[in-house]
Design goal:
- This protein is α/β, with parallel strands linked by helices.
- It has four domains: 102 residues, Rossmann fold; 67 residues; 162 residues, Rossmann fold (3-Layer(aba) Sandwich); 67 residues, Alpha-Beta Plaits.
- Helix content is 41%, strand content 20%.
- It has a seven-stranded mixed β-sheet with strand order 6-7-5-8-9-11-10, sandwiched between helices. A four-stranded parallel β-sheet has the order 2-1-3-4, with helices on both faces.
- Helix 10 links the parallel strand 8 and strand 9.
- The longest helix is centred in the middle third of the chain and has 36 residues.
- It starts with 9 loop residues before the first strand and ends with a helix.
- Belongs to the TRAFAC class OBG-HflX-like GTPase superfamily. HflX GTPase family.
- It comes from Pseudoluteimonas lycopersici.
Length: 431
């Protein structure tokens, strides 16, 4: 067997395709994935495959061409934009004498670099172990040796390979239990947000569409954002104020074409932020020539995770890259209102806030309330919500002119001392 390079930074890319001209969008995305993983793309090799070779995926002629290209460019890593079976991966490594990584392995490597939270790291490790479980045999012939038969080495007769599989399964079981505990905690936090009666909005979209930049612009947070695929993986949740009231906004992991099923399963808790939202902000790179295809691919993943029926507000971001484009909101009378903006420059952010509040049906309550002198806590809460527009005091108590979101008013009215606020709500219902 060959000695695997530990560097793996110079990569030969193999792009399999059926008959006809290769899809340039697929090719460019694959190259972006390689660069996002930290590889330098030395050469790109197209491989037409009419009938996949069960042993090596590509034919013998193309395999020899790949070997020559690796030697000529100094590539120490081969990336294949296709899901390989363990046998194909092992045979390619033997023939090319280089480490071979398929599309799923490449995305998993990027995820392992980008995960920051404890939950994200657990999810990535779980997905990697499940992917690795079928590939323990490749490259390590010593794993086939039997324990036992020699003095001092006799044992249960278990092969090293079987031992590694058993230990790997124990690790998988442990990770799944830890993730279940994290999921319980996340569910409790989500229930607390539901009890607060704040509408929930989730940012979704193709990776590198600008979701994290938009999240930062809307919330004033400092979530990591960069011009690369899968810049952020871990969900971030913040409350934001809109015309009409507050909402809870969640940033989620970006989608990509042919997202490996191992990742969809591993990131179920992250994706549940989208699945349980009241509205999805579908962020699209307006300057992307393949934006219609990207929208269809995101919708497919949303259907796969059970979020296909949730209403969407389309956000065409990065209009700063389109000459002559200006911020606007297109209302078509259906569920897909479209806002055109630039999250980087802040152009159109106000229009998006208004459109978001309108889509969520946020309404406000205003009027005069009389608070008795012992209602200091309720008065303090109204001031904390910045709902007090005017205030006076007499023998009966405090007279406040208030203006606040209907959701906030309903929450205050439901509390024990909320009777003065409840007096405002029938007026709204009677309109």
């Amino acid at each position: 067997m060959f000695e695997r390079s530990r560097k793996g930074e110079t990569a030969l890319l193999i792009q399999p395709h059926a008959g006809g001209k290769p899809d340039e969008g697929v090719v460019e995305e694959f190259a972006d994935l390689a660069r996002s993983a930290g590889a330098t793309v030395a050469h790109l090799l197209h491989a037409r495959i009419d009938r996949p070779n069960p042993a090596t995926l590509i034919g013998s002629g193309k395999l020899e061409e790949a070997k020559v290209a690796c030697d000529a460019t100094g590539a120490d890593l081969v990336l294949v934009n296709h899901q390989l079976t363990p046998v194909q991966e092992r045979n390619l490594e033997r023939a090319l004498e280089r480490r071979v990584v398929d599309r799923t392995g490449l995305i998993l490597d990027i995820f392992s670099q980008r995960a920051r939270s404890a939950e994200g790291k657990l999810q990535v490790e779980l997905a990697q172990l499940k992917h690795m479980a079928t590939r323990l045999v490749r490259g390590w012939t010593h794993l086939e040796r039997q324990r036992g038969g020699s003095i001092g080495l006799r044992g249960p007769g278990e092969t090293q390979l079987e031992t590694d599989r058993r230990l790997l399964q124990k690790r998988v079981d442990m990770l799944q239990k830890r993730l279940e505990k994290v999921e319980v905690q996340r569910t409790q936090m989500r229930r607390a947000r539901v009890r607060s009666e704040l509408p929930r909005v989730a940012l979704v979209g193709y990776t590198n569409a600008g979701k994290s930049t938009l999240f930062n612009a809307l919330t004033g947070a400092e979530a990591y954002a960069a011009d690369q695929l899968f810049a952020t993986l871990d969900p971030t949740v913040r409350r934001i104020e809109l015309p009409g009231g507050g909402v809870v906004l969640a940033d989620t992991v970006g989608f990509v074409r042919d997202l490996p099923h191992e990742l969809v399963a591993a990131f179920r808790s992250t994706l549940s932020e989208a699945r349980e939202a009241d509205l999805l902000l579908h962020v699209i790179d307006a300057a992307d020539p393949l934006r219609a295809e990207r929208v269809a691919q995101v919708d497919e993943v949303l259907r796969e995770i059970g979020a296909g029926e949730i209403p969407q507000l389309m956000v065409f971001n990065k209009i700063d890259r389109i000459e002559g484009a200006t911020p606007r909101v297109d209302a078509h009378g259906d569920e897909r209102t479209a806002a055109w903006m630039s999250a980087r420059d802040g152009d159109g952010l106000g229009l998006l806030r208004e459109a978001l509040g309108e889509r969520l049906g946020l309404r406000r309550v205003s009027g005069e309330v009389l608070l008795p002198t012992d209602a200091g806590r309720l008065r303090a809460r109204l001031h904390a919500l910045e709902a007090v527009r005017g205030e006076s005091h007499d023998d009966e108590g405090w007279r406040l002119h208030v203006d606040l979101a209907l959701a906030d008013a309903a929450r205050l009215a439901a509390q024990a001392d909320g009777a003065p606020i409840r007096a405002l709500l029938p007026e709204i219902e009677a309109e």
